[in-house]
Amino acid sequence: MKIRIFRGNSVLEVMREVKRVLGDDALILSVEECRDSQAGKVEILAAMDDGSDFALKDEWTSGRFPSEISFADRAVGKEIRQLRQELEALRRDLNRLYRTSHWEFALSSLVRQGVRKEVIEALVEGIKRGEVLGGTAGIQSGELVLLLLKELIATYVEVLPPIEELRGNPVFFVGPFGTGKTLALARLACVLGAKRREFGVGTLDPVAGKELLASYLEDVEVLELADLEELSRRLDSDREVLWLVDTPSFGLEDESGVGFVKGLLRRFPEGVVYLVLGLDLSREMVERTVRAIGVEGFTGYLFTKLDQGVGYGLIFNEVVLTRKPLSYFSMGKGVKDMEVATPGRIAELLLREDL
Questions:
Q1: pTM over 0.85
Q2: For residue 42, is pLDDT > 80?
Q3: Who has the most CB within 10 Å: 34, 117, 246, 323?
């Protein structure tokens, strides 16, 4: 029996090498995520039964095991061979079971998170294209399935750069009533302040925008902008200032409000529009909001109230179906409770259940 360690930058990459070197019948003994980036991000310990007595050699183990273990005693060798045959039969039986159960369990967890059927079907197609179903080495491990699925989910998620690195100006915060867009703006203003990036805060909401922002940002001047023309003049006067602009909340039946939002990127083609949506919204409400604005009407998503939703599938659905990037997540009521969205973080949220 040969045992060897394989390393690489992704599970799929390492599994393909396992299959190339050891064949389809290789047995995966362990899967680990490596902290040492120079050695690769993933390490898989795999074995192949070549009919020889059990031995571990330096070139297979890279020094992690004794250089060689041999069984000179024939009686012991016979028992080992018999045990190996029994283990091989058990491995084949378990492999048939796990090929189905691990993937079904992982994908069913996505269903429980609220991921839509068509999105899961897209993931399954991605799994098939990656040759990780039906005959590829390593499906014996639930841990391996989890890592593969995380990698696959991450490939479907695009993200915007952090706000301090944005090249667009101004940055608009738009969304329906009750999504927390004003608080989201205040949180990102705190981020810019901590990064020592020069910024300005303005509001186009004539009702309570200035008062609400001022209550969140006690040490920041909040300008009440009369209209987009005034904002344009502010931009022309100092291009180094990054403007964060709150906008009036809108209802889906409010044609003028929706039309105003849809026209922002036409008026400011170099700007950025964050569509702020709360995870407490229904799927229908989110989809209607996106349809009303149109994917061309905003730059990316900013999701709030992650602690109030029933599942994180809503986020993944929108990213996959609209192909629009994510920017930030927020939860809680604190001004500093903001998290940069990353593909890996989305995968972690969706697969919080252990396999």
A1: no
A2: yes
A3: 246
